[in-house]
């Protein structure tokens, strides 16, 4: 995770610095070069007809601008300076080309600079690009001045819009990464915490009866082995989900079934192996539920059973009820343990209860957990199916 975090942060930092991928830089160059050649190149050829030596010089200056655009994402300030100087030279050689057209490549460079560099830099470049407006006013009057200033400001504004769009994209990427990291943390916690709790209890029981009842100790050790294999299998599934060939393993074999309400009996068996009596009852069709709801319900049951093993003092029986009615899945896990002060609903700020509530919230549902008046502890969740 640390390596992935560093790579993600490097990507964000690169985008924040205005770095553009080589493919995007090439595409931007081809597009801007084609625009300059099509508009400014054509204007120079038309205006430079029968102008003697001025035409080849003007064409050369246009090609200089086109070539300079190749580095506009790496050094936009330098490229803007070169294109502005070359554009003014073209206009001086061929006054028939409007000043706005002669500085087209510079306006493109201003747009790129505005999108990739801090605002203080782009504002300075905008002010510098507004200086030739006096020339536009002297040649074309108020109309020429208006057209020139409008095109320059529009180029700068387009860059600012692109910069804001990139900022929103970075924020969305960061949010997605944070949510994905939280989801992975929940999955790892759910897999490891439940299995380790069962294994600890089984190991303690095996140690207590190792001499007097060796067969029972062997049974506990076998349960520990089964639980460890199950946890390793779920962790492999979890890690495989982040590989490109997530659908199959290296040998082409299909993935084994993941956590699901259809496997509640298997989950209950791991708890029964500790000596706890577990009653599982479900009503309605649990097949065909959305995967997010199915997984959330399974993990809520798993975490509730883990909490019973850890915190329910004197509990020897727990009931699990899953009801699918209409467009809602109801989950209830109730044990008969005593409710010490540390297990009150107000104190349920541990990772387990917080994780269960977060899982329910992510699918649009709700969860409540707390002691019952007659004793015991209840975890009850309602998960909507529609829109999950």
Polypeptide structure, described:
This protein has 388 residues and is α+β, with helices and mostly antiparallel strands. 64% of the residues lie in helices and 10% in strands. Strands 1-2-3-5-4 form a five-stranded mixed β-sheet, with helices on one face. The chain is built from twelve helices and five strands.
Please write out the topology:
Elements: H1 2-16, H2 22-47, H3 54-68, H4 76-93, H5 99-102, H6 104-116, H7 119-130, H8 133-209, H9 214-240, H10 264-272, E1 277-283, H11 291-311, E2 317-325, E3 328-335, H12 351-362, E4 366-371, E5 377-384
Parallel strand pairs: 1-2
Antiparallel strand pairs: 2-3, 3-5, 4-5
Helix pairs in contact: 1-8, 2-3, 3-4, 4-6, 6-7, 6-8, 7-8, 8-9, 8-11, 10-11, 11-12
Note the overall shape.
Answer: rod-shaped
User: Termini separation (Å)?
Assistant: 28 Å
The stretches of 5 or more residues where confidence is low (pLDDT under 50) are 1-18, 244-255, 342-349
Order of helices and strands: HHHHHHHHHHEHEEHEE
Fraction in beta strands: 5-15%
Radius of gyration, CA atoms, in whole angstroms: 34 Å
* Overall pLDDT level: 79
What order do the strands of the largest sheet run in, or round the barrel if closed? Answer: 1-2-3-5-4
Report on the biggest sheet: 5 strands, mixed
Q: What's the β-strand tally? A: 5
Features:
disordered N terminus, single chain, five-stranded mixed beta sheet, 388 residues, alpha+beta, 5 strands, 12 helices
